[in-house]
Specification:
The protein has 179 residues and is mainly α. Helices cover 77% and strands 0% of the residues. The longest helix has 28 residues. The radius of gyration is 16 Å and the shape is globular.
């Protein structure tokens, strides 16, 4: 039942994310998810809540196959990042809120990405770990070159859903033991 719930949650979140990103356009800085949130704060909050809980649930489901629990404080920090992202406006006129929003967004992204990568690494899912690492590095390079766009922001998130789905639903492996 957990796997079915997880699959449905991922599908709903991907579809909502694509629809939400379409409100501002997928390319160009005006399509950045936070910029769309300035005009649609409730829709942005729904996107953030769905995104956090879809990723956190998938990560927790994956880590249950291991004996590692370090993901719990990482997901807590990631949650704080998402709360800052959703509660602080992405408006440069209010510099303090803008900085807190950016810190939260960056914290959420980096910590969640690291958590997914570490799940694959400690589970010895080498192909998934390498793929995740390539996606994270590629996204960082694209972000530096093109700045924020909906495609660049959604690329690692949707990729993470797909990799976590593969790990949690398709790849069956015995529990990983701490050595």
């Amino acid at each position: 039942m957990k796997k079915v719930f997880n699959a449905v949650l991922i599908i709903i979140t991907i579809l909502y994310s694509i629809w939400y990103a379409g409100l501002g356009g997928f390319v160009g800085n005006k399509g950045a998810l936070s910029k769309i949130g300035l005009e649609h704060p409730v829709l942005f909050a729904i996107w953030g809540i769905l995104t956090y809980f879809s990723l956190a649930y998938s990560i927790a489901l994956g880590f249950r196959k291991t004996k590692y629990i370090f993901y719990i404080p990482l997901l807590t920090l990631s949650f704080v990042g998402m709360v800052l992202t959703l509660t602080c406006e992405f408006d440069y006129a209010n510099h303090t809120q803008y900085v807190l929003h950016c810190i939260g967004s960056l914290g959420f992204s980096v910590i969640t990405g690291i958590c997914v990568f570490l799940l694959f690494l400690v589970s010895r899912a080498r192909v998934l770990a390498v793929t995740c690492g390539i996606i994270l590095i590629t996204d960082l390079v694209l972000l530096i070159i093109f700045k924020e766009t909906a495609i660049i922001e959604l690329f690692p998130i949707i990729s993470g859903y797909i990799l976590l789905f593969i790990f949690n639903h398709i790849r069956e492996k015995s529990k990983v033991e701490i050595k």
